[in-house]
């Protein structure tokens, strides 16, 4: 039997997962566990580059794990773990810091954006974040790393680190490929269709989280910005009607209908019926996920069992890579 290719990805528990997280990456992950040997983790070490309230971080980390499972990531078929439970991440992160250059870290657009947004807390972790992310990836020798466009630059940096490291010590790490799903919908804020729907709380009033109450979801869709053109019809034109295009993308992704079908469905009706229809479709999409998440969260023993087993599996693989790295570098084995 041919060995399955390895895939790995993480999401920071720094904000509640949104409809955008689901319709973009998360929705595709359950299919991938059939085809690949998958590792998915809650990147809590990454979350603290920005100040987190400890209770909120704890809640989100567990909720995110429960949501992954509720969305179809069967823990029997893939490895789900919490990053800080696998100490090898922090250790390899330090090593790779010594192989990542100040200049290349300085060029990361996410660092520049985040420093601008957190001017009072431009800490070292924010700067060296990509070395830790490289460690997350390289510990598992994955073939593919599913990420959004915004993370592609970090995967590129990980590739550069691999080339630099392997150049000195031989073939230690596999060169990872970013994997950007062709069909992944990019969902924008409902109040500002020029910006991605964000999982952090600061300021995005146009987001819908996976756990939002149906009433809240309906309200968010009813007040979603449409476009100020005079035509007031449901037509897919992302250039001139970005608000409507975003709602259509959501509706199309949730219902599986094409843009042409949606245009026909709402022909001659304006936005008054369209916006609540999108809201209702989203409420129905999220209902079973919410129920399942609550059920899993209530079962503490089960959840604990999942993350313990996940950490054990992940550590075993991670330790093999870390040992090899330490040996190559010249550290004395204990
Ligand atoms: N940096 C990613 C983000 O902000 C999260 C992440 C951390 C990640 N480590 C990773 C993604 C490793 C893929 C692989 O979304």
Describe the structure.
The chain has 334 residues and is mostly helical. Helices cover 52% and strands 7% of the residues. The chain is built from 14 helices and 5 strands. It has helices spanning 19-23, 29-35, 44-47, 54-70, 88-97, 102-106, 109-117, 124-138, 152-169, 214-222, 242-255, 259-265, 274-298, 300-329; strands at residues 6-11, 37-42, 79-82, 144-146, 177-179. The strands form 2 sheets. The protein has a 3-stranded parallel sheet. The radius of gyration is 21 Å and the shape is globular. 40% of the residues are buried. The model has no long low-confidence stretch (mean pLDDT 93). It binds tryptophan (TRP). The site of tryptophan (TRP) has 13 residues, from strand 1 and helix 8.
What's the Cα radius of gyration? 21 Å
Mean pLDDT: 93
Termini distance?
A: 37 Å
Secondary structural class? mainly alpha
- Please tell me what the overall shape is: globular
Count of separate DSSP helical elements: 14
Hetero groups:
tryptophan
Strand content: 5-15%
Largest sheet: 3 strands, parallel
Order of helices and strands: EHHEHHEHHHHEHEHHHHH
Helix content bin: 40-55%
């Amino acid at each position: 039997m041919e060995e399955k290719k390895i895939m790995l990805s993480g999401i920071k528990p720094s904000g509640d997962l949104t409809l955008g997280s689901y319709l973009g990456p998360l929705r595709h992950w359950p299919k991938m566990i059939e085809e690949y040997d998958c590792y998915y983790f809650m990147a809590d070490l990454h979350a603290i580059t920005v100040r987190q309230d400890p209770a909120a971080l704890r809640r989100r980390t567990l909720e995110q794990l429960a949501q992954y499972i509720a969305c179809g990531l069967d823990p029997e078929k893939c490895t789900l773990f919490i990053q800080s439970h696998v100490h090898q991440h922090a250790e390899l992160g330090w090593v790779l810091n010594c192989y990542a250059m100040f200049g290349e870290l300085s060029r990361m657009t996410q660092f520049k954006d985040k420093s601008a947004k957190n001017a009072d807390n431009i800490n070292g972790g924010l700067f060296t974040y990509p070395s830790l992310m490289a460690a997350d990836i390289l510990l598992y020798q994955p073939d593919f790393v599913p990420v959004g466009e915004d993370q592609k630059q970090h995967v590129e940096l990980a590739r550069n680190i691999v080339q630099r490291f392997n150049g000195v010590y031989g073939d230690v790490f596999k060169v990872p490929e970013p994997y950007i799903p062709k069909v992944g919908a990019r969902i924008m804020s409902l109040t500002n269709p020029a910006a991605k729907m964000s999982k952090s709380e600061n300021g995005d009033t146009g987001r819908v989280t996976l756990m939002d109450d149906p009433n809240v979801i309906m309200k968010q869709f009813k007040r979603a910005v449409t476009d100020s053109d005079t035509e007031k019809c449901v037509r897919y034109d992302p250039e001139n009607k970005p608000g409507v295009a975003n709602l259509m993308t959501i509706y199309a992704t949730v219902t599986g209908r094409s843009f042409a079908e949606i245009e026909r469905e709402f022909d001659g009706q304006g936005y008054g019926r369209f916006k609540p229809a999108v809201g209702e479709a989203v409420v129905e999409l999220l209902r079973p996920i919410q129920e399942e998440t609550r059920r899993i969260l209530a079962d503490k023993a089960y959840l604990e069992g999942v993350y313990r087993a996940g950490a054990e599996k992940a550590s075993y693989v991670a330790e093999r890579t870390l040992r090899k790295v330490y040996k190559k570098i010249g550290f004395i084995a204990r």
